[in-house]
Amino acid sequence: TTFLQRELAAYTANVRTLSLIDIALPSNSLQAAMGGVSRALAKVHPSEASGLRRAVSTMEDRWFGSIKRMHDLRFDQPAEDEFVLWSIFSSATCLNDSPHSAVIADDYHLRDHSRWSPELNARSFGWYKACLLKKLSREPRGDGGTLWAMSKNPAFTQRIIQLYRWFPEARFVYLVRTPLQTIPSRLSLLTQIWKTRTKSFTKMSAEQVRVIVDDSCRAYLAAETQLAEIPQSRQLVVPYTELRQNPGAILASICEKFGIDGVGDTTPVPGVYISQHTYGLDDYGLSERDLRSRLAPVFERYGF
Questions:
Q1: Residues whose CB falls within 8 Å of the CB of residue 36, separated by 6 or more in sequence, listed in order
Q2: How many domains is the chain built from?
Q3: The CATH number of the domain where 211 resides is what?
Q4: How many other C-beta atoms lie within 10 A of the C-beta of residue 215?
Q5: Which of 54, 93, 140, 288 is the most buried (most CB within 10 A)?
Q6: Alpha-carbon distance 136 to 51, whole Å?
Q7: Half-sphere exposure of 261 (CA within 13 A, CB side)
Q8: β-bridge partners, 150
Q9: Which residues are CB-neighbours of 254 under 8 A, at least 6 positions away?
């Protein structure tokens, strides 16, 4: 999903997506300050500016170094929108912050969106929409034309119908990959994050694995039911293998179907941006047969 998000953002000039710094510092005043810093850097001698950029890069390596080989994190790069909701404790990522909070039963509603109250939905979507609108306001088109706000959020598969109500003009790209890869990949990433944050942590317990696997299965199955409620003209299913093999064709098909203009000359190169971590079902005691049974509609529909 990160690969598609960043390539699409680079592919057309009329798409805006939240960067990590947008998510970490969402207020207008802080963003105005960051804009002032950027303008000041533009006036600095190249040698001095490069030194400042190296300092920022060093900070990124210090904070994200152990994770970057799995998931590239940089302040100025597009990031996952779910962290917008993390900042107001309306996301399962709040639970996944540590190995201890991951299995807190009292906050389980954060994982299962079907249990959310109308008030919690309104609060979270209201905040999320405000963050997107501020981004569009900060970075308008030079000709005053239409801009697209692009979200990348695997957790939104549970909230497709809600999203369609809050954003009636929304288009949905469902990038689907075999659960036999995505689930152990997610477990591997969380394991590394927890090792970084909790020095005593070494390996996921069976209960921690179960909670994350249940969460992933819920997300897959929600997409199967909720996409059916959205008009076909507003959705596009993209197999992950096709994206990897021919990203340029996939980006062109997205823009053509949804009428996204401003396409540039950039042509993505197949095979770039490949995560460097390795993972497998056996690493977490998972059974292929069990996953195929639990996610039978997904395997049958996409032929995984």
A1: none
A2: 2
A3: 3.40.50.300
A4: 21
A5: 93
A6: 30
A7: 5
A8: 17
A9: 8, 173, 236, 238, 260
Report the distance separating Cα 215 and Cα 113, nearest Å.
Answer: 11
Are 70 and 277 within 8 A, CB to CB?
yes
Residues 91 and 60 in one domain: no
SS3 call for 9: helix
Kindly state whether residues 131 and 263 are assigned to the same domain. yes
Tell whether 174 and 216 lie within a shared domain: yes
- Of 92, 99, 286, 277, the C-alpha closest to 193 is 99
- Digits of tens for pLDDT over the chain (304 positions)? 778 888 888 777 888 988 888 888 777 788 777 777 666 666 666 666 566 667 767 776 666 666 666 666 777 778 888 888 988 888 888 888 888 888 876 666 788 888 888 898 899 999 999 999 998 988 888 787 788 999 989 999 999 999 999 999 999 999 999 999 999 999 998 898 888 888 889 999 999 999 999 999 999 999 999 999 999 999 999 999 999 899 889 999 998 999 888 776 555 555 455 556 678 999 999 999 999 999 999 999 999 9
Which two structure tokens, joined as six digits, stand for 286? 């998972």
Q: Give the domain extent around 47.
A: 26-69
Return the DSSP state at 90.
-
Pair 199, 121 in one domain = yes
Query: 57-91 in b/e burial notation, b at 16+ Cβ within 10 A?
Result: eeebeeebeebeebbbbebebbbbbbbbbbeeebb
Q: Which two three-digit tokens encode residue 121?
A: 């939905």
Bridge partners of 16? 149
